[in-house]
Amino acid sequence: MRYCAHKHPPKKLTTYILLQYKRFCRISFQKGIHPILAASLIAIAFLSVTYVIFLKVRYPAYVYALVGIVASVYLSNGQRSEFLRQCFKTKNYLLIRLLENGSLALPFAAVLIFQGAYLTATLFFVTVLALASLPIQTKISLNLPTPFGRFPFEFTRGFRRYLLLYLLTYLLAYFGIQSNNFNLTGLLFLSTFLISATYFSIAEPVYYVWIYNRGPRHFLYYKLRMILLYSILPGLPLALSLFVFFPTMYWLTLIALLTGVSYIIIFMLAKYASYPYEMSITDGFIVAVCIFFPPFILLALPYFYIRSIKTLSKILHD
Amino acid sequence: MIKVVSLNKSYGKKKILENVHLSFEPGKVYGVVGKNGAGKTTLFKCLLGLEHYEGTVESTFGSLKNTTGYLPTDPYFLSYLTGKEYLQLMCNARDIKISSFTHKNIFNLPLHQYASTYSTGMKKKLALTGILLQKNEVFILDEPNNGVDIESNILISAVIQRLKELNKTVILSSHIFSTLEENCDTLYYIKSGSVSEPIGKGHFSEVQAQLTGDEHGISLKDFDF
């Protein structure tokens, strides 16, 4: 049955928009924050990105427009578009997609106009509206071999998912080495661990924990062993480059390596501390403090570990 | 042997399972039947310790969680994970060492492809292969035949019979009575949160008659198509 009947399209569109609003509220409450606060945080993040781009980046208007287009591509992803197409008549589907992309493009276009980039703003707005009618395949289903097959699943999935990001890091590191910039190359090396850490922070379905015949402690040691075994591999080309091209800074490279591994461990423990729910805002804040002030990891580690044992024991029945 | 005594399960004020008493013996195949939403999956999840409940579930196999293979109705596969990697994960979880999955691929699945891209039937077959590799003592199969082609259904029936010969305990749910007739020794019928006494082979048709005879909540003539 079609979600949208045919007699009163505007009413049905309102229902769809109301549903999206309800979803936003539910997700916010699930994350432990009020929807008004969530909306404010999104607005602050948007203004911060805007501020940084127009202050720090060359050709800010183009970069800004590109960020807006990338964001609209997310709304046009194939599966989502397919679902909406099945639910609504073609006319209503297009209306919804135009409305969604238009709402997203509006603040970007407003900033571009405010900055005097009238032509870029017009081209950007037209492009985003045009994207509304196109279903875009955002997932690459290339079956890429990885060296992580013996111990699935975090590194195996993450490496495939973020391959482009890793490649971009390698490319930037190449420029870092070329310009003899240790700080940039070292930071990029550290960022490979942060990329790995992000896929350790996403909660897997309970079944994928329940299947283990280990108690919570052994389960965490198993995950820890996997991290120690695999975490260096995505950043290995950069680690080797750092040792070869900046041999006198080997100790800083080692510190970066240790910090990077600690990042992944703290992300993993923070995930299981709230498991099976997603990481809370408070825990996310603690993790953020760990990233910017790594010695704090020594305090956060036992805190998350104890909580992880508690939550996992409900599933692994120690 | 698994013994369930006075099992109760509620979601808030709504009682899903009430005072359930069951026993499952090794070398036997049990069928659990009931309408959609009757509580079959909830019962399975209670047995597996995936849901909190009141009452006791005792097992002579030690920890039931560590000796049971569970095939969910709709197995979920993580994205960017191949069939082979899924099987490796299932083996790692139970410390099972397997050097090659080629001879274990009884359903001829494309193990090099991402499991999330498999069809419904292929997903079911991959999940079943995973729990078979774990060498479990108990198998809980929630609608194992759903979405699976005829050829594979025949193979699944053969697998169930082989498990029975190996003295394993198999508990399955299905809406297809021919499957239940073919595979099960005993049936349990769940209705309104209560579970019937064990029903032996030869009396399955009575359960089928009860299930099909139950009144529908809404008459089709009242539905505005």
Task: Give an overview in words.
The complex is a heterodimer of chains A (318) and B (225). Chain A is mainly α and 318 residues long. In chain A, 75% of the residues lie in helices and 0% in strands. Chain A is globular, with a radius of gyration of 23 Å. The mean pLDDT of chain B is 88. Chain B has a domain at 2-78 and 138-217: P-loop containing nucleotide triphosphate hydrolases (Rossmann fold, 3-Layer(aba) Sandwich), CATH 3.40.50. Chain B is globular and about 50 Å long. Chain B is of the alpha/beta class and 225 residues long. Chain B has helices spanning 40-48, 64-67, 83-93, 120-133, 150-165, 177-183, 204-213; strands at residues 2-11, 14-24, 29-33, 54-59, 68-71, 138-142, 169-173, 186-191, 194-195, 199-200. The A-B interface holds A 139, 141, 143, 149-153, 156-157, 160-161, 204-208, 210-213, 315-317 and B 48-50, 63, 65-66, 70, 72, 76, 78-82, 84-86, 88-90, 92-95, 112-114, 117, 134.
Beta-strand portion of chain A reads under 5%
Main beta sheet of chain B: strand number and arrangement?
7 strands, mixed
Mean pLDDT figure of chain A: 86
Number of E-state strands of chain A: 0
Helix share bin of chain B: 25-40%
CATH architecture of the domain at 2-78 and 138-217 in chain B: 3-Layer(aba) Sandwich
Judging from the principal axes of the Cα atoms, what is the shape of chain A?
globular
Individual helix count of chain A:
15
CATH class of the domain at 2-78 and 138-217 in chain B: Alpha Beta
Low-confidence stretches of chain B: none
Could you report the average pLDDT of chain B, rounded to the nearest whole number?
A: 88
Greatest contact between two chains: A-B, 24 and 29 residues
Write the layout of secondary structure elements.
The complex is a heterodimer of chains A (318) and B (225).
Chain A: H1 9-30, H2 35-56, H3 60-75, H4 78-87, H5 90-114, H6 118-131, H7 154-161, H8 163-178, H9 182-200, H10 207-210, H11 216-230, H12 236-245, H13 250-274, H14 281-292, H15 297-316
Chain B: E1 2-11, E2 14-24, E3 29-33, H1 40-48, E4 54-59, H2 64-67, E5 68-71, H3 83-93, H4 120-133, E6 138-142, H5 150-165, E7 169-173, H6 177-183, E8 186-191, E9 194-195, E10 199-200, H7 204-213
Parallel strand pairs in B: 3-7, 3-8, 5-6, 6-7
Antiparallel strand pairs in B: 1-2, 1-4, 8-9, 8-10
Helix pairs in contact in B: 3-4
